[in-house]
Amino acid sequence: MIRFESDYTEGAHPNIINKLVETNFEQTPGYGVDVYCESARAKIKAACNRPDADVHFLVGGTQANLTVIASILRPYQGVISAFTGHINVHETGSVEATGHKVITTGNDDGKITAQQVADIYEGHWNDGTHEHIVQPGMVYISHPTENGTMYTKDELTALYEVCKKYELPLFIDGARLGYALMSPASDMTLEDVANNCDVFYIGGTKVGALFGEAVVILKDSLKKDFRYNIKQRGAMLAKGRLLGIQFDVLFEDNLYFEISKHAATLAMDIKKAFEEKGIGFRYDSDSNQQFPILTKEQYETLTKKYSVSYGGELPDGKVYVRFCTSWATKAEDVKALIEDIRAL
């Protein structure tokens, strides 16, 4: 079985494994204050062109999301998210478990607009009973979204302007950030992302690392005592260097971007093959996630050889699925898939 159901089916990039082995018997301080974490922080700040940033390393995406969100919100506040957002549908109520409501909005493509945020904020404060309603306290988006769609630079800039107007910190979930940035359809750089939000994270788990996410805090008022929040949420890894080493390697010689481009390129090859076959898509994605709409016969044929994520059945009886490429996807596997798509 050739697996296309997710982008974390493999271990880690060989350069990371080699570095972990090489440094295995070194003695370093714990909790992320070692030389490797410091080196990784410096490289990430340079890549973002934000020497003022604070960088923290956490183990996973859900852990990063709930820790960041809980650190920002007051007890009576909630976070605005697309209804398809990861924190709303795929994190088992982790944000709610911290005592905060997820306030949903958005569109079928997985994105939310500046106007939708403005409408929620204004709607709250124009309600005569607003003191009895959870107050919107921040905004969460993912780039790319759960549906593989991406924000343009203009969309993100407009969203951030509204967030600043209403003093709502903007947090970007970057679990698959590399795949968005290296998409041929992307008009943003990592620096653009850093300049148009208050905090974001760079995903490692899905982009070449064994595990780990790098939280980058840009807004000064959000930096204070963040390590207390990390510890309280059980997110402070004792052997923190294991995270630092991985990001130090990923941000050496543009490795993070090169392996992200590999996945994005192969995903576009898959997309083109479906398009040439006349097969449409549930979402118009230019990232590493593709959502073709298949007849049940086509689905049964492809899943005899390929493992994919099942999305659901549509009103016309067809189904949509997700094919997901990663930093480790083999070109020969994509070539085989393309040949089988053409044979449908």
Describe the overall structure.
This protein is α/β, with parallel strands linked by helices and 344 residues long. 40% of the residues lie in helices and 16% in strands. The strands form three sheets. The protein has a seven-stranded mixed sheet, with helices on both faces. The radius of gyration is 20 Å and the shape is globular. 47% of the residues are buried.
Tally of alpha and pi helices: 14
Distance between the termini: 18 Å
Major sheet size, sense and barrel closure: 7 strands, mixed
Q: Helix share of residues?
A: 25-40%
Which strands sit side by side, in order, in the main sheet? Answer: 2-8-7-6-5-3-4
Radius of gyration over C-alpha positions, nearest whole angstrom: 20 Å
Task: Sketch the topology as an H/E string, one letter per element.
Answer: EHHEHEHHEHEHEHHEEHHHEEHEEEH
Mean pLDDT: 98
The coarse silhouette is globular
Low-pLDDT ranges: none
Topology:
Blueprint: E1 2-3, H1 14-22, H2 35-48, E2 54-58, H3 61-72, E3 77-82, H4 86-89, H5 94-97, E4 102-105, H6 114-125, E5 135-142, H7 153-165, E6 170-173, H8 177-181, H9 190-194, E7 199-203, E8 213-217, H10 226-232, H11 241-250, H12 255-276, E9 289-290, E10 293-294, H13 296-302, E11 306-307, E12 309-313, E13 319-324, H14 331-342
Parallel strand pairs: 1-11, 3-4, 3-5, 5-6, 6-7
Antiparallel strand pairs: 2-8, 7-8, 9-13, 10-13, 12-13
